[in-house]
């Protein structure tokens, strides 16, 4: 089989988004529309990917620079045929060219594979719609052979009755495509160079025209407005939810879940309502995630229970931990097994070893905490001196009394106890009680101020 080129048309202005941002950079499931298409395209291992973008769309090549793609500008925009013409100089003749769209984000690899297998001629992706309004119609003869595509604005009343429509996605031999595109004219209702006119040319030359249908209608939905974007977002989230349910995940409500990336779950995972998963998240067996938690780029090991309203970002959580409610694990947090992080506790760039607990109102930053350590309520590691960050080391079996400030850098030796309300500024010896506290005094006969009349 000939090598594959993929051209992604993305020059449309997106006027109906009413946004300063280029249309194809708006996000669906947390990822720019065009990036969905680029990921799908890349997975097909083509010889060349070419993105056609429009004037003012310089942000597109900038945002997508990590992809091995050629970015070609189309200016002015004279139609889909004209857009594809801009890519042709970058495509070798001995190949096939697949045309995708930067604003049709959910096209699936499996459908594109089917197109590649459909035959060596011109392959069109078409779909039957109950309401075909706005789409180009697929015109066939009595033998059901495709004759042409007619745009809605150029169609006769009879042709407008046709419910098989052009999705725009097609696959063609590159040398033929080059020849056909060179012969396009803009003699039509919109004065545009229609890519769809190549179908007639193929038929006239006796090149076989095949049609393939997508496995799901949502694969071919394009985005022109915020409202279409919102609808397709919900559709995709339902697909994600169904996939999780099919794998045995318990979802309190499949309609109240957002996966913006890749969520991998073990057995008997339970997810309550309103949770958001971003980037790559792995939940082990028997993990429970409480309502309205936001988890991003994290791995949570077996049996861990995350209570509601917890935020976890770029962190690793061991097995049988108890997190939240209202816990915040910031990037670089690594919790070993059986760690408890309670309400209003923030952990950043810290490692906490097995069975240690910080249950209430604390900040643990740039720290190493040993095993079986108890961090009392309101403990703060003062990691920042206004210019630099410093580390706090707390060894095994330490008990930190409530309301303690640990002014880093410092080390608390194993088995040490720190008295509540201490401001600790130097290393703390092992196994001893250390405290820093003003003596308690009582002022006899002192009266509270009263409000002046
Ligand atoms: C096109 C098809 C129509 C099909 C429909 C599916 C043609 C002539 N018609 O119509 O048969 O049913 O898509 O949605 O192809 N674009 C450019 N440069 C241009 C014009 C368009 O890059 O100069 C890109 C747009 O960004 C968009 C896509 O091509 O992603 C489709 O363009 P649009 O103008 O929406 O085509 P339709 O009129 O909807
Ligand atoms: Ca369109």
Keywords:
453 residues, alpha/beta, Spore Coat Polysaccharide Biosynthesis Protein SpsA, Chain A, UDP N-Acetylglucosamine Acyltransferase, domain 1, 2 domains, 13-stranded parallel beta sheet, 8 helices, 38 strands, binds uridine-diphosphate-N-acetylglucosamine, binds calcium ion
Describe this structure in words.
By secondary structure, this protein is an alpha/beta fold. The chain folds into two domains: 4-220, Spore Coat Polysaccharide Biosynthesis Protein SpsA, Chain A (Alpha-Beta Complex); 226-434, UDP N-Acetylglucosamine Acyltransferase, domain 1. The protein has eight helices and 38 strands. The strands form six sheets. Strands 13, 15, 17, 19, 20, 22, 23, 25, 26, 28, 29, 32 and 35 form a 13-stranded parallel sheet that branches. The chain has an eleven-stranded parallel sheet with strand order 12-14-16-18-21-24-27-30-33-36-38, covered by helices on one side. The radius of gyration is 31 Å and the shape is elongated. It binds uridine-diphosphate-N-acetylglucosamine and calcium ion.
Concise synopsis of the structure shown:
The chain is of the alpha/beta class and 453 residues long. The protein contains 8 helices and 38 strands. It is 16% helix and 32% strand.
Radius of gyration computed on alpha carbons: 31 Å
**Can you identify the CATH class of the largest domain?**
Alpha Beta
Estimate the strand proportion. Answer: 25-35%
Instruction: Characterize the main sheet.
Output: 13 strands, parallel
| Structural shape | elongated
SS content category: alpha/beta
CATH topology of the largest domain: Spore Coat Polysaccharide Biosynthesis Protein SpsA, Chain A
Terminal CA distance = 95 Å
- List each distinct ligand once: uridine-diphosphate-N-acetylglucosamine, calcium ion
CATH architecture of the largest domain: Alpha-Beta Complex
Rounded mean pLDDT score = 97
Poorly predicted spans: none
CATH superfamily of the largest domain: Spore Coat Polysaccharide Biosynthesis Protein SpsA, Chain A
The number of helical elements comes to 8
Number of domains: 2
Provide the helix percentage.
Answer: 10-25%
Number of strands: 38
């Amino acid at each position: 089989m000939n090598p594959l080129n993929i051209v992604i048309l993305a020059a449309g202005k997106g006027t109906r988004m009413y946004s300063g941002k280029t249309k194809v950079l708006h996000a669906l499931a947390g990822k720019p529309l065009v990036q969905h298409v680029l990921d799908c395209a890349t997975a097909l291992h083509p010889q060349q990917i070419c993105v056609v973008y429009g004037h003012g769309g310089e942000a597109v090549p900038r945002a997508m620079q990590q992809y091995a793609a050629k970015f070609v500008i189309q200016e002015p925009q004279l139609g889909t045929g004209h857009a594809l013409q801009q890519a042709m100089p970058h495509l070798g003749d001995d190949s096939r060219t697949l045309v995708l769209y930067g604003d049709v984000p959910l096209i699936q690899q499996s459908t594109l594979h089917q197109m590649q297998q459909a035959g060596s001629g011109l392959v069109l992706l078409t779909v039957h719609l109950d309401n075909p309004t706005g789409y180009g119609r697929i015109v066939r003869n009595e033998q059901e052979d495709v004759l042409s595509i007619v745009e809605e604005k150029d169609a006769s009343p009879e042709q407008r009755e046709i419910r098989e429509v052009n999705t725009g996605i097609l696959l063609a031999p590159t040398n033929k495509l080059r020849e056909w595109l060179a012969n396009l004219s803009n003699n039509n209702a919109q004065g545009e160079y229609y890519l769809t006119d190549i179908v007639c040319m193929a038929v006239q030359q006796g090149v076989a025209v095949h049609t393939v249908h997508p496995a799901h209608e949502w694969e071919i939905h394009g985005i022109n407005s915020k409202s279409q974007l919102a609808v397709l977002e919900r559709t995709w989230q339902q697909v994600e939810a169904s996939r999780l349910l099919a794998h045995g995940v318990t979802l309190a409500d499949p309609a109240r879940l957002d996966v913006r990336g890749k969520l991998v779950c073990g057995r008997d995972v339970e997810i309550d309502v309103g949770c958001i998963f971003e980037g790559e998240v792995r939940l082990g067996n028997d993990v429970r995630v409480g309502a309205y938690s936001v988890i991003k780029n994290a791995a949570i090991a077996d049996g861990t229970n995350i209570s509601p309203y917890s935020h976890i970002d770029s962190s690793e959580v061991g097995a049988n931990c108890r997190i939240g409610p209202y816990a915040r694990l910031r990037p670089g947090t690594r919790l070993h097994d059986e760690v408890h992080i309670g309400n209003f506790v923030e952990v950043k760039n810290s490692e906490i070893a097995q069975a240690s607990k910080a249950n209430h109102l604390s900040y643990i930053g740039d720290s190493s905490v040993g095993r079986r350590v108890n961090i009392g309520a309101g403990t703060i590691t003062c990691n920042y001196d206004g210019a630099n960050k410093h580390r706090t080391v707390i060894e095994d079996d330490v008990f930190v009394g409530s309301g303690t400030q640990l002014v880093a850098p410092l080390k608390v030796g194993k088995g040490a106890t720190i008295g509540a309300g201490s401001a600790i500024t130097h290393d703390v010896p092992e196994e001893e009680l250390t405290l820093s506290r003003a003596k308690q005094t009582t002022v006899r006969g002192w009266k509270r101020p009263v409000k002046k009349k």
